[in-house]
Design a protein that fits this description.
heterodimer, A: mainly beta, five-stranded antiparallel beta sheet, B: 114 residues, mainly beta, four-stranded antiparallel beta sheet
Chain lengths: 113, 114
């Protein structure tokens, strides 16, 4: 089955800095990579996703990049704000039978004002 | 449109007991999946139901079971509770659970086993 590794487990930045979270996956058949954000005490919510036929996708201050050859993908947040503080989960979905995403262990992002 | 609703929000049980958690998906969503969330372990997949049938299953012992009703509402049961079962249990719904489909999560049930 798929295995997703996510780093770092904790990331502390100053407001206005950039933050990068990296994930690697094991199954070369995976072709959909969503990112979910979970604020403290709240439910996870999808913030951005990317498919394997695309190398990069942007949405305002967040972007995701994908390197299929190396089997890794990253979330980039620019100009971080205190409201970006949350746990971020990356995930990978196999195309061949199970559409259920396998999640990484999460990164706790702390943005200091 | 109402979101995914999970009940109860909090539950305290003792070892050996059993528990049933409920999840009502967004209206029209036919797929419901369940996840266990513990600190540092991320979201671990339990199982997924679609049209009342278990379609996918994660690597959890048989003490964890579930079902889905004709209205797509789902229940998860854990028998013979162990201390390690203490966790936040999240359910998520989607229209059909196809590749690239957004999952909508509920707020979860926080289970504490004493």
């Amino acid at each position: 089955g798929e295995n997703v590794e996510q780093h770092p487990s904790t990331l502390s930045v100053q407001e206005g800095d950039s933050a990068v979270i990296k994930c690697t996956y094991s199954d070369s058949a995976s072709n959909y990579f969503p990112w979910y954000k979970q604020e403290l005490g709240k439910r996870p919510q999808l913030i951005i996703d990317i498919r394997s036929n695309v190398g990069e996708k942007k949405d305002q201050r967040i972007a995701v990049t994908l390197n299929k050859t190396a089997k890794h993908f990253s979330l980039h947040i620019t100009e971080t704000q205190p409201e970006d503080s949350a746990v971020y989960f990356c995930a990978a979905s196999e195309g061949g039978g199970s559409y259920i995403p396998t999640f990484g262990r999460g990164t706790s992002l702390i943005v200091h004002p | 449109k109402a979101g995914v609703t999970q009940t109860p929000r909090y539950l305290i049980k003792t070892r050996g007991q059993q528990v049933t958690l409920s999840c009502s998906p967004i209206s029209g969503h036919r797929s419901v999946s369940w996840y266990q969330q513990t600190p540092g372990q991320g979201l671990q997949f339990l199982f997924e139901y679609f049209s009342e049938t278990q379609r996918n299953k994660g690597n959890f012992p048989g003490r964890f079971s579930g079902r889905q009703f004709s209205n797509s509402r789902s229940e998860m049961n854990v028998s013979t509770l162990e201390l390690g079962d203490s966790a936040l249990y999240l359910c998520a719904s989607s229209l059909q659970s196809t590749l690239g489909e957004k999952l909508f999560f509920g707020s979860g049930t926080q289970l504490s086993v004493l």
